[in-house]
Amino acid sequence: MRKSLLSAVALTALVAFSGSAWADVLIGVAGPITGPNAAFGAQLQKGAEQAVADINAAGGINGEQVKLTVGDDVSDPKQGISVANKFVGDGVKFVVGHFNSGVSIPASEVYAENGILEITPAATNPQFTERGLWNTFRTCGRDDQQGSIAGAYLAENFKDAKIAVVHDKTTYGQG
Predict the structure, then answer these.
(1) Distances (CA, A) of 138 to 68, 117, 129
(2) What is the pLDDT of residues 64-109, one digit of tens each?
(3) Which CATH class is domain 2-143?
(4) pTM to 2 decimal places
(5) Domain locations in the chain as residue ranges
């Protein structure tokens, strides 16, 4: 997953910034840096930091160094919109994040209105990419694919086993 995220970030950033010249290329990473999902946010931040280090070590984008700014959305949709608006004000052109679908969806509206690309490594709700926004991409599977794929795998590999299903009633579980 880390390599695919790095490749997606580098390719999207290269396309987005080709032919442009900035003193620095500012990329945002947004996720739950604090709060109950902070462990996931830390992974997201560390992955983005490594991607930026790798891109800069390879000469940057069009010779310009990449700078990373971090936004803490605490897995809260309202905070996610605040982070998105801050990124707009800071001049961010590309965002990796958000982690949660319930945060990614409203934040993507702000990004679309302001010409900012967003790629999420974790927002699995189909609505994230089904709304027809030009700027939203994901590197993970969709919720509506997970059940059928898992079911087919279980049916094929655990034919005689008893299987229990645990249901999550959050936005993630209803995707």
Answers:
(1) 19, 11, 8
(2) 999 999 999 999 999 999 999 999 999 999 999 999 999 999 999 9
(3) alpha beta
(4) 0.78
(5) 2-143
